[in-house]
Amino acid sequence: MSVPSRLGRYPVRRRIGAGAFATVWLAYDEQLDCPVAIKVLADNWTEDQHVRQRFIEEGRFLRKVESPHIVSVYDAGELEDSRPFLVMSYADQGTLADRLELEPLTVSQSLHVIGQVGAGLHALHQRGVLHRDVKPANVLFRTVEVGGERQVSAMLGDLGLGKAMDMSSRLTMIGGTPSFIAPEQAQGEPLDGRADQYSLAALAYLMLAGRAPYDHVSLSAAADPGPLPPLDNGLPDDAEKVLATALSKDRGGRYPDVPSFVEALDSALVDHTEEPPTWIAVDEDLTRPEPRVDSNASPRRAQRVRAAAGASALVVGLVAGYSAQRLVATEQTIWDSTNSISVTVPDDWTRVVDAEPWRAPGGTTDEPSVAAGDAEGWNGITDPGEGIFIGVLPGESLPTGVPERPECGASGGAVPGRHLGGESITVEFTGCSDDGGITIERTVQVNADQLLRVQVRAGDRAVAYDVIDSITTPGL
């Protein structure tokens, strides 16, 4: 993708990251003399009025809130090709996901982040907006000056799933990341601020324990979480009780609001914080306008700088109810338009995404499906690329075989197995293109009267199976 010289009145420096629905560019506001992040709707979604409206709504939700701990929208506009864009605050210090990959936070640092994210959520709730996707990749860090000293401040980004509270009772589309969403959200029930409180508590548990409280891979698992695992890290029982309260399966057992939870956790850990408090240090490498990696830098430093290149995993977000488990430049989780199927794919595979239902050959009804690839025609015979197609079709038993691939040189034969809780058959094809690679065809009996058809094309066998094994079907 070529770098545009300008977006609206803003000169562009470089691309920060790209997702299935938007690209984010680092640009410069010459009038205000500061860097900004510009989020532009992907051109293949310009004509989709539903996605377009959700994109615009994100900007409107963000504009409702005046808080240093919520990503700000400074401007909005439309390019010559009719694509809308949002001009937003730039997170020059990466994300919480980036930081936790490098090193754990101290108790004081964790409380510092929890308090600021909690303040951002409270500001949203006071304006009648739910976030609905609080997770490490959506906690962004930026440099601020306090008392003449530079500090790192946390803010919440990506309101692609955000909803006005007065709309939540009519909400039918389920969104969010399974390991961090409240049970009532996973079940598609009407929501209030206690759903965001649950997500914040899951985030707090992750920072304090070094692991998430749950490792849900589907919405059905998130809808029925088991007992909270113990922290097992020497922190007081009172802290564990606070987290257990905020993570109650029944929302009626949680704190009445986010500030009450934050205050209770602060009180429980008051004797376990440093004096004076230790804030997260500013990383000078991340503030540079261009990402640099010094060949003499340590591996940890190089990793940190590489993370910054996609630092604003920031606000790339998947809009219109699609959720992403890791909004970094390596992989993304995409959903079909009915939230029945999800799959995690390499970032390059989201250049072409189709989340609309399909009708199987010979079928009479539209069924859920999702496809993603690295280019138009990725699944064609001529000039094939990499990607995946997943589609539901009616069927009470597995077929005797899977579609043939006459363009491929060899087939490993049908291999029976069990996947997604049902019987399956899988066939590997090789020699399908001049540059090698593999094509996998799989059919799964996901329930009594539905089959799941899967086709994966990849240049690497391990990548192909990583993708195919990431498929979930919470809505089937």
List keywords for this structure.
11 helices, Transferase(Phosphotransferase), domain 1, 24% helix, 476 residues, six-stranded antiparallel β-sheet, 25% strand, alpha+beta, Protein Transport Mog1p, Chain A, eight-stranded antiparallel β-sheet, single chain
Number of continuous helical runs: 11
Number-wise, the strands total 20
Please mark out the parts with pLDDT under 50 across 5 or more consecutive residues, or reply none: 161-174, 288-329
CATH level-four homologous superfamily name of the domain at 96-272: Transferase(Phosphotransferase) domain 1
Helix share of residues? 10-25%
Q: What is the SS-derived class?
A: alpha+beta
Chain-averaged pLDDT: 80
Topology diagram in text:
Elements: E1 6-7, E2 10-18, E3 22-29, E4 34-41, H1 49-63, E5 73-78, E6 84-88, H2 96-102, H3 107-126, E7 129-130, E8 139-146, E9 149-156, E10 163-164, H4 165-168, H5 183-186, H6 193-209, H7 219-222, H8 237-246, H9 258-268, H10 299-309, E11 331-335, E12 342-346, E13 352-354, E14 369-373, E15 387-394, E16 410-411, E17 415-419, E18 422-430, E19 438-447, E20 450-458, H11 461-469
Antiparallel strand pairs: 1-2, 2-3, 3-4, 4-6, 5-6, 7-10, 8-9, 11-12, 13-14, 14-15, 15-20, 16-18, 17-18, 18-19, 19-20
Helix pairs in contact: 3-6, 3-9, 8-9
